[in-house]
């Protein structure tokens, strides 16, 4: 019988420090009103000293394991979707594996920016379905505030830090779990969002690297246009492949980048407001953390009930985009 990858439990972690729009008004020429009107964001969380992506990931992972009542030794795999790992190497997943004591697990990172959780969930699902692993920890986590130019008003208002983690296990197919995934990419748009310094193109050891950008760069309106199309395309494609229509979706959990992007995707799909989960006002864009953090909050608010069809969708630097259909 076919194995399904089923989410057993979710955990999350955000830093305690809150950065409000009013705080940003003191740093750059902006206003609470402008930020809310253009993005829907009111505040975001920001790492304090010593808080790294692995620190948030470990907290989220421990919470997910506790809710799943699973010991870390039962995990066969740790996957972390992140583009803000603690170091270029080793992978953040290895730091998480050690931090939680997943002594029997393999570990690797997936670099798919804001679609990092969607990509990671897809990889872990395939490995469960083909019998390679039984239990996997899938984390989406980013700490982009470490890489922001606090004088650039077009980017510093958007991002926050956060992590979410799920325990995913193989079960006999009973019609629930990760039902389908769509992954898409277009590297010809790689120049629209990047962080140049520190890779092999601009290693810190090379004097030439002085010209490299040291903070996140984003061409906001190009990314905006791409995002609106990408969200619609991934959702239509995954529903089409599953032989379903938007009216079959019980809860839409999109990447929380910008309320206007979420609203336009929901409108294109004809989804009513109560079917769309939004928490961008509290956290801003937490990149890989965004979707698992939203799933965590949706479950805790009672908006995710067993049997519901959940559609996630995300997009980000790469460019990459994708979607998951999950029967809760
Ligand atoms: N406060 C006040 N004014 C601002 C601010 C600000 N914080 N930022 C920009 N402006 C100004 C601009 O300078 C511009 O002024 P001008 O007309 O005098 O030149 C004006 O506002 C309009 O700027 P736009 O960039 O056209 O504003 P827009 O409505 O497009 O909103 C935004 C900008 C919010 C960045 C939008 O483009 C966006 O959300 N883009 C997508 C970002 C995204 O989702 N990224 C996700 C991927 S990130 C990842 O993968 C890591």
Structure described in brief:
By secondary structure, the chain is α/β, with parallel strands linked by helices. It has helices at 21-25, 32-39, 53-68, 92-100, 116-129, 153-156, 220-242, 259-269, 280-283, 290-300; strands at 3-13, 18-20, 43-45, 77-81, 106-110, 135-143, 161-172, 177-185, 193-194, 217-218, 251-254, 309-316, 320-327.
Task: Give a structural overview.
With 328 residues, the protein is α/β, with parallel strands linked by helices. The chain folds into 2 domains: 3-174, Peroxisomal Thiolase, Chain A, domain 1 (3-Layer(aba) Sandwich); 178-327, Thiolase/Chalcone synthase (Peroxisomal Thiolase, Chain A, domain 1). The protein is 32% helix and 25% strand. It is built from 10 helices and 13 strands. The protein has helices at residues 21-25, 32-39, 53-68, 92-100, 116-129, 153-156, 220-242, 259-269, 280-283, 290-300; strands at 3-13, 18-20, 43-45, 77-81, 106-110, 135-143, 161-172, 177-185, 193-194, 217-218, 251-254, 309-316, 320-327. The chain has a 5-stranded mixed beta sheet, with helices on both faces. A 4-stranded mixed beta sheet has the order 8-13-12-11, sandwiched between helices. Helix 4 links the parallel strand 4 and strand 5. Helix 3 (53-68) packs across helix 4 (92-100) and helix 7 (220-242) packs parallel to helix 8 (259-269). The chain is globular and about 55 Å long. The structure holds acetyl coenzyme *A (ACO). Residues 30, 34-35, 38-39, 113-114, 153-154, 157, 193, 218, 220-221, 223-224, 227, 257-258, 261, 285, 287, 316-317 line the site of acetyl coenzyme *A (ACO).
